[in-house]
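Researcher: We plan to redesign the surface later, but first we want a full-length starting point. Tokens attached.
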């Protein structure tokens, strides 16, 4: 009770003090600022925003990886991955700070709010934006001396980030000359960084010593002391360096910094005694010391890092593996070791399958709160996309091999495969059992965090859980858990066996099902007919092509992509049109690495497939622009024909499509749709046999189409399951109105999907590289219920989950997002001349667009209107999709680029139209001092100077 009274009195004192303190009443424009505005601005908004910013700053800092073989950065820059992981947090800081800057502008927290905005932009990596904000603070709040100095300090750091060292140096010297007590530690540290950029080590040491002396922040003091020791060691001051390294070792520094400080100290000792320092030998010697027993996993990790730096990848991997499996060891260190193994396999060895496995192990070991965890998830998912296709290829090739064997040889092979799997499972189970029975006292003795209380000891709990599962199996946390389900260990073993026999049906439920049953299930998957073998080969070819594009577009591995594509050529005969697409990809990739090979594939493409869109794109660089009008006209024709079909004018529909045949053949992406629509119309007049033959012909003519073919295959499969009813019809499709059918009436009609050409089908100018998980854009689901109705369905672009009804799931292969992308790319490929007289801007309106506010005077500081615009667009769009950047063009123009969910020109123009009403009050500038327009992302890349900006402005007039 006494404690609560003291606490209440304390807060009462704070409240009364805040009321009568002079700071609560600030005179602005002849009026007193409301005390309530100050209190709400500070405690309701600023405090929470600053806490969020501090959290993001710590997370970004923790993701920075130091190279201890080099002089550490005094102020390390946030990397892109770290910044992106904190985008949501930083956007929230911006929203809150904007409230103060723009709504509580009469309070005394406006300058602090702009500091939050500036630091948020800096942590996002938007350094030009940050410079505008910091400049605004230092020039508009001269009475706020502390924040003025901080604004100048961060302005200097932001200029470091864009390599503008001279300007940063002058700003920092100007702040230092003010000789104020504020931020003395950080200012001296920044000046030390400036001197390091100019290779002036003596001056850097002078200022860094002062920074270490002034700072009260333990992180800064430890880091700067380590850097000071590094500089002194390089400057031939071994005694001073040794002393500072020793301070780091005695401090509460993170293990890696403390460990490297200790190594540096040992190195100085050995050099002083005339010995040559061997880092790996020293690390191995440290392993033998009892005091380092708890840190063995981390020492192995340091040995691996050293070997990796020396280029010994094989040994480095061995030590990372040792680090990951050292017992006892920390869970986090295990995750970091697996992460390094994943990165070595991904970046250096290009072994993506192995990298994917290590990324999975990383995710199982690292806590979800680990900074950058989500980025690891994205990478692992991307590699999962690759691993799935590699596994599919391996499986299908094995099945194709089995199809060539005799029945006896095939059964023997499968028997051996099952036997090997069972043996592996037994070994794995034994290893898991052995690991579960680690002695708790022995393990926990070296676990300094394990307490005597059972639930405080993770190892004890782990063994308890293992024993529980061994006896009871996996149980849900619920009442009467002892009698729920089966506790048979044999059942669990049988299920585990079934789940791990690759390529075998995973429906094994009880031990009673014999290996003969498993063998029979496996035999069902072997392609024994020519049709089944062809389907299996097509799966392999499709997967290989998707892998090649994945290497190119996601992993940016040109060599691997070339190897995959050139291997794929062998799978096709010389007349197969798919070769045109492969040749074109090789031509484009080789352009960047081998001009001679690029010309080889260019010649093959033009000579063997002169009528393909790929050859046309090469022969005529303006193919897309010249052909766009014809493509648009043909798409409109499809709309007209589709309308006739909806009106049940089937004869007219067929004749219209026949008349357009010559034009349609020039556009392979539209041809399947026209053929499919024609087949649908024929279905109302022709026998089922002819209708099915026409559907099969479409499948044969366009095997690589991902829009129509999956749907037709599903429908053919359903027809095959219902042959009796379907083939007894007078015509394939029955002319009736499905909407008038009674709910309980029997239905046996087959609904076939009709695609409707959408605007999005027109090819965009460029193909955006997708670094996220490859996704499948799936057409509307076709279920048996839907198929039973005779309702043509328009194409829908809705992205839905990939789960499909069990009845036809196998009939609908996943569509490849890259296939369409590549086809669209070639329609618009336009190599730019080296020195164009005039810039060729694209007319494509279906790509992402940007709103530009062009301030005609580059000397105007746009921090305040920039904040207003940020607040405005945060209120109109999801903040995570909004990104505003400032860019100076020449010496005359400053561009504010606004990106949001503006996926085409119409959306961008509408957003700009809505903005125009409020723009004059937001900018607070004469109308003649700014202009606004929208521009596509590809065109914005062409704006590099004043001349190109003027060309674009003339272009859009």
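Model: Full-length starting sequence:
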């Amino acid at each position: 009770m006494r404690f609560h009274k003291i606490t209440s009195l304390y807060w009462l004192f704070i409240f009364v003090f805040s009321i009568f303190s002079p700071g609560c009443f600030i005179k602005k424009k002849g009026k007193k600022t409301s005390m309530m505005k100050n209190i709400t601005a500070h405690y309701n908004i600023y405090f929470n925003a600053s806490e969020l910013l501090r959290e993001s700053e710590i997370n970004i800092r923790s993701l920075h990886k130091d190279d201890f073989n080099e002089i550490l950065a005094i102020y390390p820059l946030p990397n892109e991955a770290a910044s992106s992981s904190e985008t949501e947090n930083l956007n929230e800081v911006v929203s809150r700070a904007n409230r103060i800057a723009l709504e509580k502008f009469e309070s005394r927290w406006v300058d602090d709010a702009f500091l939050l905005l500036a630091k948020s932009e800096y942590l996002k990596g938007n350094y030009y934006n940050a410079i505008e904000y910091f400049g605004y603070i230092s020039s508009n709040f001269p009475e706020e001396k502390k924040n003025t100095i901080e604004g100048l300090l961060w302005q200097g750091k932001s200029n470091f980030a864009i390599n503008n060292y001279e300007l940063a140096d002058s700003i920092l010297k100007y702040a230092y000359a003010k000789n104020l007590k504020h931020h003395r530690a950080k200012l001296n540290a920044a000046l030390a960084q400036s001197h390091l950029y100019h290779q002036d080590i003596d001056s850097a040491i002078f200022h860094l010593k002062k920074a270490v002396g002034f700072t009260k922040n333990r992180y800064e003091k430890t880091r700067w002391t380590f850097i000071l020791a590094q500089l002194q060691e390089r400057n031939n001051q071994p005694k001073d360096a040794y002393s500072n390294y020793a301070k780091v070792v005695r401090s509460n520094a993170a293990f890696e910094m403390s460990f490297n400080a200790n190594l540096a100290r040992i190195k100085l000792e050995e050099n002083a005694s005339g010995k040559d320092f061997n880092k790996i030998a020293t690390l191995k010697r440290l392993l033998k010391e009892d005091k380092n027993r708890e840190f063995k996993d981390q020492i192995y990790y340091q040995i691996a890092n050293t070997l990796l730096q020396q280029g010994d990848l094989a040994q480095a991997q061995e030590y990372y593996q040792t680090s990951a499996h050292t017992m006892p060891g920390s869970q986090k260190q295990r995750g970091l070791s697996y992460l390094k193994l994943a990165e070595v396999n991904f970046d250096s060895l290009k072994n993506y399958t192995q990298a994917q496995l290590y990324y999975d192990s990383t995710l199982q070991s690292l806590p979800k709160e680990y900074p950058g965890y989500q980025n690891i998830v994205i990478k692992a998912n991307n590699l999962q996309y690759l691993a799935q296709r590699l596994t599919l290829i391996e499986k299908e090739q094995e099945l194709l091999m089995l199809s060539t064997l005799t029945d006896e040889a095939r059964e023997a092979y499968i028997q051996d495969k099952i036997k090997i799997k069972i043996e592996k499972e037994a070994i794995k189970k034994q290893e898991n059992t052995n690991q579960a029975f680690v002695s708790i006292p022995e393990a926990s003795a070296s676990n300094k965090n394990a307490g005597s209380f059972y639930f405080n000891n993770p190892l004890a709990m782990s063994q308890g859980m293992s024993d529980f599962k061994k006896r009871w199996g996996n149980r849900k946390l619920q009442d009467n858990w002892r009698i729920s389900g089966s506790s048979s260990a044999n059942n669990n073993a049988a299920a585990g066996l079934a789940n791990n026999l690759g390529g075998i049906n995973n429906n094994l439920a009880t031990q009673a099902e014999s290996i003969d049953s498993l063998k029979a299930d496996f035999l069902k998957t072997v392609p024994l007919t020519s049709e089944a073998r062809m389907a299996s080969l097509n799966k392999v070819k499709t997967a290989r092509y998707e892998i090649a594009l994945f290497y190119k577009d996601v992993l940016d591995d040109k060599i691997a992509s070339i190897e995959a594509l050139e291997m794929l050529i062998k799978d096709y005969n010389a007349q197969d049109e798919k070769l045109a697409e492969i040749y074109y990809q090789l031509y484009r990739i080789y352009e960047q690495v081998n001009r001679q090979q690029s010309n080889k594939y260019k010649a093959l493409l033009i000579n063997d497939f002169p009528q393909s869109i790929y050859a046309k794109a090469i022969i005529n660089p303006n193919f897309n622009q010249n052909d766009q009008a014809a493509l648009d006209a043909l798409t409109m024709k499809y709309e007209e024909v589709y309308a006739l079909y909806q009106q049940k004018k089937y004869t007219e529909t067929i004749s219209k499509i026949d008349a357009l045949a010559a034009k349609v053949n020039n556009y392979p992406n539209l041809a399947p749709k026209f053929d499919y629509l024609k087949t649908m119309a024929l279905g109302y007049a022709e026998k089922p046999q002819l209708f099915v033959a026409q559907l099969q012909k479409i499948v044969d003519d366009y095997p690589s189409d991902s829009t129509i073919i999956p749907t037709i295959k599903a429908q053919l499969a359903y027809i095959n399951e219902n042959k009796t009813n379907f083939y007894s019809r007078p015509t394939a499709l029955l002319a009736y109105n499905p909407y008038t059918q009674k709910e309980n009436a029997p239905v046996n009609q087959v609904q076939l999907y009709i695609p409707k050409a959408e605007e999005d089908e027109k090819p965009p100018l460029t193909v955006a590289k997708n670094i996220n998980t490859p996704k499948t854009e799936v057409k509307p689901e076709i279920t048996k219920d839907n198929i039973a109705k005779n309702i043509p369905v328009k194409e829908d672009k809705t992205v839905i989950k990939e789960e499909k009804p069990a009845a036809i799931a196998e009939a609908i292969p996943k569509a490849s997002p890259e296939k369409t992308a590549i086809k669209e790319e070639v329609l618009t490929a336009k190599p730019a001349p080296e020195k164009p007289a005039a810039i060729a801007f694209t007319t494509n309106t279906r790509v992402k667009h940007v709103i530009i506010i062009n301030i005609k005077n580059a000397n105007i500081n746009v921090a305040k209107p920039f904040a207003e615009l940020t607040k405005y667009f945060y209120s109109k769009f999801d903040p995570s999709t909004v990104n505003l950047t400032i860019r100076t063009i020449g010496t005359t123009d400053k561009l504010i680029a606004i990106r949001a969910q503006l996926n085409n020109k119409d959306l961008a123009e509408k957003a700009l139209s809505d903005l125009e009403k409020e723009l004059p009050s937001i900018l607070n500038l004469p109308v003649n001092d700014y202009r606004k327009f929208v521009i596509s992302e590809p065109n914005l890349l062409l704006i590099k100077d004043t001349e190109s900006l003027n060309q674009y402005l003339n272009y859009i007039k």
